[in-house]
Amino acid sequence: xxxxxxxxxxxxxxxxxxxxxxxxxxxxxxxxxxxxxxxxxxxxxxxxxxxxxxxxxxxxxxxxxxxxxxxxxxxxxxxxxxxxxxxxxxxxxxxxxxxxxxxxxxxxxxxxxx
Amino acid sequence: xxxxxxxxxxxxxxxxxxxxxxxxxxxxxxxxxxxxxxxxxxxxxxxxxxxxxxxxxxxxxxxxxxxxxxxxxxxxxxxxxxxxxxxxxxxxxxxxxxxxxxxxxxxxxxxxxx
Lengths: 114, 114
Description:
- The complex is a heterodimer of chains A (114) and B (114).
- Chain A has strands spanning 4-7, 10-14, 19-25, 32-38, 45-51, 56-59, 62-67, 72-77, 86-92, 103-104, 108-113.
- With 114 residues, chain A is mainly beta.
- In chain A, strands 2, 4, 5, 9, 10 and 11 form a 6-stranded mixed beta sheet that branches.
- In chain A, β6 and β7 form a beta hairpin.
- In chain A, 36% of the residues are buried.
- Chain B is 0% helix and 59% strand.
- Chain B has strands spanning 5-7, 10-13, 19-24, 31-38, 42-50, 53-57, 64-68, 74-78, 87-97, 100-105, 109-113.
- In chain B, the strands form 2 sheets. In chain B, strands 2, 4, 5, 6, 9, 10 and 11 form a 7-stranded mixed beta sheet that branches.
- In chain B, β5 and β6 form a beta hairpin.
- Chain B starts with a strand and ends with a strand.
- Chains A and B meet through β4, β5 and β10 of A and β4, β5, β9 and β10 of B.
């Protein structure tokens, strides 16, 4: 089955700096890669996703890149703010109708230092 | 639209008991997936239902079961509870568009087994 590895497990950055979280996946058939942000005591919230037909996607301060050949994808947060502090999870799935199973990475605890 | 709802939000049980958790997906979403979140194992896929049929199942023992009703509401049941079943149980409903799938999580049910 699919295996998703996520690094680093913890990350501290100064407010205003950039943060990068990296994930690798094992199943070359995976084609959908969402990122979720989970604040303490709350549900995972989808912040950005990318599908295998594109290499990069941006949404304001957040971007995701995908390298299908190397089977890795990354989350980039620029101009970090204190409210970016949370645990971030990457995930992968073979998103075809009938297979809505997400395999998650182990999470990255991001701390923004004011 | 209202988001994914889960009941109850918190539950305390003792070993050997059974428990039933409920999830109502976003209106119009017909697919419901269940995940278990623990500090040690992270987010793990339990099973997924679509139109009252289980389409995917994760690697959990048979004590974990579920079902889906004609209104897309889903329940999961855990029998003969063990201490290790203490976790946050999340359900997600899936929106399918021409661009693909997107999963939205409910707030979760936090289960404590004593």
